[in-house]
Amino acid sequence: MDLITVSGPPSSGKTSILLRTIEHFKQRGLHVGVVKFDCLFTDDDVYFAKLDIPVKKGLSGSLCPDHYFVSNIEEVVEWGNNQNLDILITESAGLCNRCSPYIKDIKAVCVIDNLSGINTPKKIGPMLKSADIVVITKGDIVSQAEREVFTMKVQSVNPKAIIMHVNGLSGQGAYELSTLIYDKDKHVATLEGEQLRYPMPSALCSYCLGETRIGKKHQVGNVRKIKLGDS
User: Fold this and answer.
1) Average model confidence (pLDDT) for the chain?
2) Distance between CA 168 and CA 133 in Å, rounded?
3) H or E stretch covering 204
4) What is Dmax (Cα atoms) for the chain?
């Protein structure tokens, strides 16, 4: 079973792209499954289920969804192997633009959209910078010049990545993506002992543990203060 990790900012078009891409996998007779990770709510699993494929979802609740992802990915891989999948796709929200759920030697795809802002590529950390493939969406509602400038911004952050444009509505580009992300010779039996490509943020502070009161005397652990100066 091949494992593919897909992440990207909320509403960037991850699910739409995957639905179109999975259609091409199915046309080739491949058995695909999806596990969707999110924070408080998602009904994306309903859309995946309409493709008649195995699907599970996990909601992290009060935890960072990408930390939740790492804590559960080994069990998810075991589930995928028990389903006899050819391809297991995980979709993670990347809500804070800082985490990266990517694993060494596992294909990593970042989805980002043209409407997110010209400087957004610089604001997204390892999730974009360490991806193998960057998929840019919503190119049909901006000009050619805007598409090219945005692509250059992505290239400046991750010059090693394959960058491609995919339309989640029409499906244009989805077949090409399906040929890039699947490796039939890849067999992931377990992730035990494997490593992330980038460490998660070390943000263990009193607010991570449920503190709600404001003020220095209530702040313990890993706390970072803004430098405001004297003026």
Assistant:
1) 90
2) 16
3) none
4) 66
Q: What is the C-alpha separation between 130 and 50, in angstroms, rounded?
A: 32
Summarised one tens digit per residue, pLDDT across range 105-126 is: 999 999 999 999 999 999 888 8
β-strands 162-165, 32-38 pairing: unpaired
Provide the phi-psi class of 221: left if phi over 0, else alpha when psi is between -120 and 50, else beta.
Answer: left
Of the candidates 93, 90, 88, 68, the one whose C-alpha atom is nearest the C-alpha of residue 12 is 93
CB of 191 closer than 8 Å to CB of 77: yes
DSSP code of 77? H
Q: Amino acid identity, residue 141?
A: I
Using CA atoms, how far apart are residues 67 and 85, in angstroms rounded to an integer? 25
d(CA 172, CA 190): 34
Burial code (b: 16+ CB inside 10 Å, e: under 16) for 212-222 equals eeeeeeeeeee
Task: Please report the DSSP string for 92-121 in residue order.
Answer: E--TTS-----BTTSEEEEEEEGGG-TTHH
